[in-house]
Amino acid sequence: xxxxxxxxxxxxxxxxxxxxxxxxxxxxxxxxxxxxxxxxxxxxxxxxxxxxxxxxxxxxxxxxxxxxxxxxxxxxxxxxxxxxxxxxxxxxxxxxxxxxxxxxxxxxxxxxxxxxxxxxxxxxxxxxxxxxxxxxxxxxxxxxxxxxxxxxxxxxxxxxxxxxxxxxxxxxxxxxxxxxxxxxxxxxxxxxxxxxxxxxxxxxxxxxxxxxxxxxxxxxxxxxxxxxxxxxxxxxxxxxxxxxxxxxxxxxxxxxxxxxxxxxxxxxxxxxxxxxxxxxxxxxxxxxxxxxxxxxxxxxxxxxxxxxxxxxxxxxxxxxxxxxxxxxxxxxxxxxxxxxxxxxxxxxxxxxxxxxxxxxxxxxxxxxxxxxxxxxxxxxxxxxxxxxxxxxxxxxxxxxxxxxxxxxxxxxxxxxxxxxxxxxxxxxxxxxxxxxxxxxxxxxxxxxxxxxxxxxxxxxxxxxxxxxxxxxxxxxxxxxxxxxxxxxxxxxxxxxxxxxxxxxxxxxxxxxxxxxxxxxxxxxxxxxxxxxxxxxxxxxxxxxxxxxxxxxxxxxxxxxxxxxxxxxxxxxxxxxxxxxxxxxxxxxxxxxxxxxxxxxxxxxxxxxxxxxxxxxxxxxxxxxxxxxxxxxxxxxxxxxxxxxxxxxxxxxxxxxxxxxxxxxxxxxxxxxxxxxxxxxxxxxxxxxxxxxxxxxxxxxxxxxxxxxxxxxxxxxxxxxxxxxxxxxxxxxxxxxxxxxxxxxxxxxxxxxxxxxxxxxxxxxxxxxxxxxxxxxxxxxxxxxxxxxxxxxxxxxxxxxxxxxxxxxxxxxxxxxxxxxxxxxxxxxxxxxxxxxxxxxxxxxxxxxxxxxxxxxxxxxxxxxxxxxxxxxxxxxxxxxxxxxxxxxxxxxxxxxxxxxxxxxxxxxxxxxxxxxxxxxxxxxxxxxxxxxxxxxxxxxxxxxxxxxxxxxxxxxxxxxxxxxxxxxxxxxxxxxxxxxxxxxxxxxxxxxxxxxxxxxxxxxxxxxxxxxxxxxxxxxxxxxxxxxxxxxxxxxxxxxxxxxxxxxxxxxxxxxxxxxxxxxxxxxxxxxxxxxxxxxxxxxxxxxxxxxxxxxxxxxxxxxxxxxxxxxxxxxxxxxxxxxxxxxxxxxxxxxxxxxxxxxxxxxxxxxxxxxxxxxxxxxxxxxxxxxxxxxxxxxxxxxxxxxxxxxxxxxxxxxxxxxxxxxxxxxxxxxxxxxxxxxxxxxxxxxxxxxxxxxxxxxxxxxxxxxxxxxxxxxxxxxxx
Length: 1266
Known about the structure:
By secondary structure, the chain is mostly helical. The longest helix is centred in the N-terminal third of the chain and has 40 residues, at about 50-90.
């Protein structure tokens, strides 16, 4: 009675504590909402912090606190469960046997005899299995024979039901590793190249912790003896759930400020969506365990490396076969660590020292570079030879993390089927489609990264409108979003680019998905239909299946109570109701009927896809089918399509995950309730922690997102896929009358293909070879866009392990192969984590060699003429220059002719003109002249958008220009990198707002420095500054057909003249007066030093808040260095702020002292003021006033020299060959004519956007209307 009272008290206390926690959470949310937060999603996680480190530790503390309650509750639950099991065993009238072994089932034999699943029962009652005897050629029995040959020597052959499994120790360690891996994996998913820390790593690290806990004093509940294999499995199952929930993709897409930015979504709504997408599929796993878990033929080869890990760590009593007995004396545990160490050492080569080994285009090496122009691939290399842009014929990889342990343990017939399918799709079908130009434009498809070569291996979309000058160019899916209409289709944008093209390889990938869907259904019905029908009948009659009942492991699992089907039905009903609520009342919305249609779709495919996964180790997904079906039903609704995709894909994946864990529990003899509880607890904890981590990285990580290495490409891919399947919709791609309508035949071909081997087995000759012709595996081709290097190496790995080792080295195969597979995967994962963390910390291997090429060239540079591992030769850049000039000239001509009718109407029509007509006409003429000027000038402008130091170019550098020291390059690169990270997000917290410029102050005690960064954010403010130049005209109107302008000044003058001519306005005659009108004295009203009034107004607004803050920091930290940094217009304001900061000191001595601790660095800064302003800056004696100018950046030329404007400070010019040149401005009247002033200023946008390879916040200069 006391025990029941305690249990009741615990159950009552749980909801009370949950209610109290909810009250505290509600009060916190209410207080958070009372503060002015710019984004509703931040309400839970917007914690006050002074530094990113504080934010991180506060978020970590919040995470720990949020999960601590769940951990304690789980520990209490495990205590109750374990206590109930102890009571059940002690009160049972017929106590369970202490040890179950196969000898008890096979008959009284002292010697171990493996049980034949087809042998009759030993009690003499063979009536239940008599109809099964003699079913020769049945695929299920063929599979059973193969399973026994690959399992018995690694899977435990006995069981002790009293062995602890679901204990306080296992649950606590499992929750701990679940929290660690969930948070880490979710944060690392925002990396440019995301990676996941596998549950095997947690299993290895949990082993010493479990043994350490076991060394503590014995306690019946808290420490029940030795750390057992069953406890270890529970920890692994919980840790393995700590992947990134698929629903997080949808959360990030809708909530992230730089994606859909839905500010109405709260944290709790996101958490609810993640939870229902994670749990809705679990009911299917329980209801289908008769088909996917209990049959012996469903052997799940993907589990074998995991079983190998546990068998080596815990020395399970697997079968001692004659072949392995006495041959190898080394234990599996020792062999595991030797294999782990060897792979750990080796993986540093392809992942760090020689990354080119990750993808080798062997076809290019055999065929040669060809004789094309520099940088232009030969026809063979572009389509077939290159593993990066083509199909990668004979492509190789020596990186084990790309291969994986599954190919060591996968049945060889499945490997052959999969390899054959990839070979036919990539090496045969794709080149044929390209050669015949099946869908057109194959030779024209180009991406921005490589405008010279057609691309085959890509997921890009391409413009197919034959009337467009951009025909064949890649177009972002985001172009088709209508942001004002909930990100649905923008019909106007689609009409501009339609019909949309994809590469032949990407089209085949969609075709293969259609083939797989129907072939899986047909294959299952033909080969396993009778068995499934028998199991369904037995399930309806609540009878044990006669074949499954003969399985040795199913017999041992009879010692544990099974979870009834009704429990799974009830759970699925609750999850369905929760899904309906989330779908109807949160912004993660879709029609109510879509929930039930989603369940129907998952229920239809969970058994076919599960059978294929369980037999072959190849997992199939529902993402393409779910997108396709829902996109046809509700076309153009992006959010609904994304939500349906998340539910459909994740429901199936979670159902198969639990099925695999149930099979793992069956092999290692864990109670079903323990496996299900571990899976549910891990999923619940990982959902909470993963959602918290996603919100933390989106709103509390400072400037991390958007910086180098943190561009969250995976989430941007999901965002783009929403445009393809949601906004554009499958009917526009595959509907009747569309470009790719013929791919719909793949549904019928897939349904018919499995019939052929079935008929061959039935009417030609019965053989299991027919069964191995598995079309769902043959059709499962994917990974377009990734390097095509897996076919050869995965086939060779399977050939060695499943043919050579299995037949010629059976003893090694049986004792060590699965252990080696587990060790290899674990070691590769550890190296991956370490190298990734080193990359985050800025540590890289910089010694260039043939296997570690420069970033200036592709990783398969040996495919390209004129390339080596450092760079391309000069001819490639000449070609790039000509292509750029041609494109910009075509753009100008197209824009001019498009608007010429409006210009003529402006001249001839005497009626009042519509508002804006003159502006359009002026813009047409301006764009025409700009295009022609750039097309001429680009002959000297470097076209490569990378602008990385060290790139080659044919131009020579005058002798008077000395290359800057390496120290200067390093310093300026570091400043550019830090500024780029800050400007990428421009978080409002901690910034000082001006009229159009924001500033941020950052205190760095480790460097003893204060950084003040400036950036312009308002196009209107920039427009005011630019329009002021139109008030000044230095020459009379000229004909619109005047000679092409040769300099930026004459180009601007032509614009002013054209404006005056068309408006019938006389030009200004008093130029100096007009110049004076746009200048303001600085630093006071009596100064002869004058600056542009727009810059002065910006600074005056910022100074109100900035100056007191800087004065306070100056008094607190007099020895600290103050660094002022800005880009473009922000750079101009940075110079004014630094000058005012120094000038405001009360005495000249204080000015000099302060000036020595002040520096100014700007990038792409325009001219600020007159020559007197330059003298004023020089008089302040600031330690460094540096301005960096890119080759071709036009912004530094604004504020014309002929109007009296002069640059200030020291100029460092990144010239045409990407050297950082130290310019001699003093010797050339303030500006060195051999630096930025030697060339035409009207350069491309990227020249202003990128400095030292880092993307600056794009100044609204290019968005402003002039």
